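In the design runs reported in the main text, the only information available to the sequence generator was the tokenized backbone. The following block is the verbatim input for one such run; it is reproduced so that readers can re-run the procedure and compare outputs position by position.
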């Protein structure tokens, strides 16, 4: 999957318009306008990986001898960091710019997985899942904004976004706990880190830095 996405995104520069005709009001002008496929690829990685990790986190907590209540509390804090801190994500995106904000979001997601690597500490679970939720919020809000801008001139952006992103999220929700049953949390972390780093490479290749 990673190899396919990297090859697809780097196949010449057919997904990129080097001469965008628009400038975001309070952001520095972007040198690159994402095309529909590129936005969809990054959005699929972002949503799939977040749900994949989240759904594997609860059985991981239970496997560390914590009870269901503690596992549910960790997931609740994760949801709060995803949606409750959305205004902070928006402010940061406005401050640093959309492209840099997306890259920071991916970086936070990688940090969350490194933090929880081989850990069975409940405090680490809280911190890791909250970082994951906040990083996802920054990256996904930024991508939604780019999709909205691009859709003004290309309706395919919205169509591809809705066709692929949410099915990928559903696949992540199913595959996360199933893979955890057959492997362990370390494998989950490694897959998530690989996917987020792939997204960072794709994004950095076309973003404005």
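Verbatim output:
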């Amino acid at each position: 999957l990673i190899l396919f996405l990297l090859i697809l995104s780097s196949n010449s520069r057919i997904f990129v318009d080097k001469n965008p005709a628009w400038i975001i009001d309070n952001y520095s002008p972007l040198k690159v306008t994402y095309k529909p496929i590129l936005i969809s690829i990054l959005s699929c990685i972002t949503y799939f990986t977040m749900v994949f990790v989240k759904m594997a986190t609860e059985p991981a907590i239970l496997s560390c001898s914590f009870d269901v209540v503690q596992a549910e509390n960790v997931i609740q804090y994760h949801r709060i960091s995803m949606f409750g801190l959305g205004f902070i994500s928006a402010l940061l995106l406005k401050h640093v710019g959309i492209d840099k904000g997306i890259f920071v979001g991916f970086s936070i997601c990688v940090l969350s997985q490194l933090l929880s690597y081989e850990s069975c500490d409940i405090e680490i679970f809280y911190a890791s899942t909250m970082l994951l939720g906040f990083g996802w919020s920054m990256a996904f809000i930024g991508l939604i904004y780019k999709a909205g801008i691009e859709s003004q001139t290309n309706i395919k952006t919205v169509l591809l976004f809705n066709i692929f992103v949410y099915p990928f999220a559903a696949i992540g929700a199913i595959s996360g706990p199933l893979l955890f049953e057959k492997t362990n949390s370390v494998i989950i972390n490694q897959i998530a880190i690989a996917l987020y780093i792939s997204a960072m490479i794709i994004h950095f290749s076309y973003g404005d830095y």
